Amino acid sequence: MLSGIDSALTSQKLEQLALLIPVLVISMVLHEMAHGYIAYRLGDPTAKMLGRLSPNPVRHVDPLGSVMFAVSWIASGGTFLFGWAKPIPVQPRFFSHPQRGMAIVAIAGPITNILIAFVIALVGVHISVSSDLIATVIQLAFVLNIWLAVFNMLPIPPLDGSRVVGAFMPGEMHAAWSRLDQYGMIILMAMIFFFRPVLDLVSAVSTPISDFLIRLAGG
């Protein structure tokens, strides 16, 4: 959801955005499908019944969330991306251990983004690209997926990390914690105004992950 390279918005930034959009859509679709598939494997048929295990982007892309990606990128001069996809509906009552099941479902999305980043790293390390623009987009797509993973693992409702933290809470505390989801959009929008500290935090966590994946890819 965040990406940072400080510079003024130029036509090259708009070209980068145009090339990043397909990567972003694929990354978000796979992220959401991972949630739905793991939920299905754990016994929840909701996502499957609603057709959310489909790779069709129409079933996952949120119109307003998609517009926010473009608006945030343009408004910030190509230094910030913020937006969202339609969340996968999950019914924890189908799980034998609801809190643990929700944590497993939640972590599947960020893990998927890490795997996507690794595939991109393999491409970047082993395939020669003559176009500077394409090389930059590959780099940004790599960083974007790592940042999507790290950002979503922040322990803030309604992000995936809040489900993982919730797995370790006693029942009543978890119920109160889960109710914060109803304020999720307000919380996420508020984070826009504090994007620099969030950016710094996500960057600090992302850097060692990026270095590890590049080494793992042979770079």
Offer a concise description of the structure.
The chain has helices at 11-41, 46-49, 63-75, 98-126, 132-152, 160-166, 171-179, 184-192, 195-216. It has 219 residues and is mostly helical.
Features:
about 220 residues, mainly alpha, about 0% strand, disordered N terminus, globular, about 65% helix
Task: Tell me what the structure shows.
- With 219 residues, the protein is an all-alpha fold.
- It has one domain (11-216).
- 66% of the residues lie in helices and 0% in strands.
- The chain has nine helices and no strands.
- The longest helix is centred in the first third of the chain and has 31 residues, at 11-41.
- Residues 1-8 have low confidence and may be disordered.
